[in-house]
Amino acid sequence: MCGLCYAHEVYHFVARFVVCFCIGYFFITLFEPSFLSLTQYGTRDYFYPEITETYGLQFYRLSVELVPLTNATATCGDTSVDSPLFGRGEFKGCKVTHHQSAEDPGDRHCDCVAPYGWMHQQSVERGDTEAAAMWRDLRAAGVVMYVFGSLTMVLVVLSTFWLLPDVASKMRRGRSTHPQDLIAAVLFTAAAVLCLVGGLLWRSLGGSARCADLVDARVLFAAPTCEMGRSGIDAMFVTPPLLAVTSLFQWLFVQDRVRHERWKAARIAQLQANQNQPAPQTVGNAAGNPQDDVDDAETAAGSNV
């Protein structure tokens, strides 16, 4: 009984954990703008303005540091940024922002953003097939992550809100948790596989392998650094292991339930076999009437007289 109570408490903990994780995964993975971040410092007459490119699931973002009174100063418009380092870039929207820091309180940047579909169309109109292919791959990678991330979340929600409460209710009533526990194990395993496959596909289409191409293409830049953003790290190295641990716990629970049911079935079969055994039979007149023995003794005594 205590073991069932302990397992029930563990189930409640897992349910709360999975719900929080599911919500966090949805917002971090599907809405975080920085799946891939490329930060570089452009060189122009010994000035090093910071240039950061961020690749999300839907949008490309470019941030150019505005260094005043230098030959590397960029001009920030409403839909474009013009820099001596890379020329003119067209975007859906640009604006000047202040990046406050202790080292430079007056630090200003020109932040521009555009969806991949728009960037792809602009590249096609310019006849830049290489850039068009890159934007197409990045857009496809975003769609893949949205699809696989949404499916992962749906499977986790189904297991958390539909199956685990039913399993816990059956445990409290002392009933078998089959087949809900088995279905939950399958769904958790499928969620872990979907999450891992989605991350690998995103990495293949537009992940960190793209960083080398981006760094090599910027010959005017110095000290380039390319790293995977927080969402990319979560999608590749955090989320799948957590789901794998959850599914492993569920499979161990199913295995323990099957072992317990087999032991219980064997005990019931043994008890039934003992009840069906015939009663032991008596030998001779051991079960006769004691009065008959007395009468026989008196008759034998009379004969001797």
Entry summary:
With 305 residues, the protein is an alpha+beta fold. Helix content is 60%, strand content 17%. The model is unreliable at 215-223 and 300-305 (pLDDT under 50).
Please explain how this structure is put together.
Keywords: Membrane, Transmembrane, Transmembrane helix. The chain crosses the membrane at residues 13-31, 143-162, 182-202. The chain has one domain (2-263). Strands 7-8-3-2-1-9 form a 6-stranded antiparallel beta sheet. Strands 4-5-6 form a 3-stranded antiparallel beta sheet, with no helix packed on it. It is elongated, with a radius of gyration of 37 Å. The chain contains 7 helices and 9 strands; from the N terminus they run αββββββββααααβαα. The protein has 305 residues and is of the alpha+beta class. The chain is 60% helix and 17% strand.
Q: Helices and strands in order, then pairings?
A:
Layout: H1 2-31, E1 36-42, E2 50-55, E3 59-65, E4 75-76, E5 80-83, E6 87-90, E7 93-98, E8 108-115, H2 116-126, H3 129-172, H4 180-206, H5 209-217, E9 221-228, H6 230-275, H7 290-304
Antiparallel strand pairs: 1-2, 1-9, 2-3, 3-8, 4-5, 5-6, 7-8
Helix pairs in contact: 1-3, 1-6, 2-3, 3-4, 4-6
Region (Disordered): 274-305
Transmembrane segments: 13-31, 143-162, 182-202
Keywords: Membrane, Transmembrane, Transmembrane helix
